[in-house]
């Protein structure tokens, strides 16, 4: 099954999260694209995800996930104890998404914003669309 993560390419926290996922996904299950890129925009359009969505987007096969549901499904596929994070899926999505939105709405203030994208190494570059 193909898995794509669409992230905010200008967000420092989001870029660090991508690096975190790459290190804990040695099998390369996830592919990545910035939401601002042509590929990211195309995927969002294909899955009918509105442009104004301010969330990580996970595409698994023919389904899309946003906010905490996306983050927890990513955790489920990482190596190590990060898989345990998926148990939080039992918490109602309104509560999970409240916490997610708190972080999301403050991410530029707390973690900063990038003016340019970091260039990945050649072995990591092949995982970006």
Automatic annotation (TrEMBL):
According to UniProt, the name of this protein is DUF393 domain-containing protein
> At the top level of its lineage, which domain of life is listed?
Bacteria
Q: A GO molecular function for this record?
A: protein-disulfide reductase activity
Xref: PANTHER family? DUF393 DOMAIN-CONTAINING PROTEIN, THIOL-DISULFIDE OXIDOREDUCTASE DCC
């Amino acid at each position: 099954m193909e898995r794509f993560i669409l992230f905010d390419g200008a967000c420092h926290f989001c870029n660090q999260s991508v690096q975190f996922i790459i290190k804990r996904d040695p099998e390369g299950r996830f592919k990545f694209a910035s939401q601002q890129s042509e590929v990211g925009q195309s995927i969002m359009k294909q899955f009918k995800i509105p442009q104004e969505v301010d969330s990580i987007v996970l595409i698994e096969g023919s389904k899309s996930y946003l906010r905490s549901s996306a983050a927890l499904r990513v955790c489920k596929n990482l190596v190590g104890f990060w898989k345990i994070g998926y148990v939080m899926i039992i918490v109602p999505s309104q509560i999970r998404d409240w916490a997610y939105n708190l972080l999301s709405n403050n991410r530029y203030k707390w973690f900063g914003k990038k003016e340019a994208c970091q260039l990945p190494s050649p072995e990591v570059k092949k995982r970006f669309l």
